[in-house]
Amino acid sequence: AEDSVHLILDSGEELVVDTVLSAVGMAPASAGLGLEGAGVELGARGEVLVDEHCRTSQPSIYAVGDVSGIQPLAHFASHMGAVAARHALGDGEARMDREAVPKVVFTSPELAWVGLNEAEASKRCGEVVSGSFLMRGLGRASAEGELDGLVKLVARAQDQVLVGAHILGAQASSLIGEATLALAKGLTLQEVAQTIHPHPTYTEALPEAAEAALGTPLHGV
Hints:
Elements (H helix, E strand, L loop, with lengths): L4 E4 L5 E4 L56 H15 L14 E3 L4 E6 L2 H8 L2 E7 L4 H6 L5 E7 L5 E8 L2 H13 L4 H5 L11 H10 L7
Antiparallel strand pairs: 1-2, 3-4, 4-7, 5-6, 6-7
């Protein structure tokens, strides 16, 4: 329209917005490098297939970053590069973690997540538990007027090990780092809940969400 864009979803719902960003995807730029001649196996999209150590089908050749087709993210590429370098230098335990990879959308408010959502976790882990805490319940958020958003944690019901975290709100891109560490190290909801966080900060939303998942909310927000 003259002053807006009307977007019709598959469900039939119509959204009226200022701008639509169309992201059509990415493809690995592996053509013309002579990889096939070197015996390096490629996937259907031209991605260089690698193992957990970032080795290709040729053990002396490593590949990292977007060309692997795993996660087109700069921070994951750096992680892969470090793994490849350590493994090439003899550290047989160096391996990449494909699960604990944080993703961030730098909108306002910011959106960040790591691991599984509830539906994914239910399919993979069976019964799950989750808990949420609204950002507006934080003193820091009230003081700075950043009231929108929440933190949601997802864990396996059987052992309460964290399998996913989802954050919408101010500083989500920074908060997701702590959630990623907790997920990578297999922390439980109880361990997250019992970790002391400084006040007043946005990080307090993480133990609050953990307490909510445990059924013992600290502040009932």
